[in-house]
Specification:
alpha+beta, three-stranded antiparallel beta sheet, 8 strands, 29% strand, elongated
């Protein structure tokens, strides 16, 4: 019923617009499907501290097309659900609720210091740090024998994913004090 709809120019333009619309809507459709899939996947909930690709933050909102994260630096990140569906998601809050979230940091100490002494000092620093769980107990790994130093890794359990940055700072300060 549109005037001129029988012309070849109208048919060409409408075909062109149809192709553009279908190509443009493919990402929208993939985000919608990903949004519905994420409901059943249950990788995270609102309030959880997660890492999606290189982005870490608290989930503030989940919508049909996108998920909103607020970083510890108070930045708002909007991630398309299709990206989340095709990425690995690390849910720190889920592990923290189970008491299985391990915070760890490497420390390089020269070969002249006995390893038993280094391990005892790292465990003392962890024990002095408020906010870590006492059970399961912290543990130390030797992760590398470098040219000039042994790399140790102190591992501690915590149950508060939102306090990760503050807990790391406290741990670093106690390591410096003990050493």
């Amino acid at each position: 019923y549109i005037p001129g709809s029988g012309s070849e120019a109208f048919k060409g333009v409408s075909l062109f617009l149809g192709v553009i619309f279908s190509l443009g809507s493919s990402s929208v459709i993939s985000n919608v499907i990903a949004g519905y899939t994420m409901v059943y996947r249950r990788a995270f909930h609102i309030g959880d501290r997660v890492r999606i690709n290189e982005h870490m933050g608290d989930v503030t909102e989940t919508r049909l097309l996108v998920t909103h994260l607020r970083t510890p630096k108070n930045e708002e990140i909007v991630i398309p659900n299709s990206v989340i569906l095709n990425s690995s998601v690390m849910n720190y809050s889920l592990l923290a609720r189970q008491g299985k979230l391990i915070l760890h940091t490497p420390v390089g100490i020269g070969y002249e210091t006995p390893w038993r002494q280094v391990e005892a000092m790292l465990l003392l620093a962890a024990d002095r740090t408020e906010g870590f769980l006492k059970d399961p107990k912290p543990f130390v790994l030797q992760t590398a024998l470098g040219d000039f130093a042994v790399t140790y890794e102190i591992n501690v359990y915590c149950d508060n994913a939102q306090a990760m940055a503050e807990l790391y700072t406290r741990l670093y300060r106690n390591i410096l004090d003990v050493f």
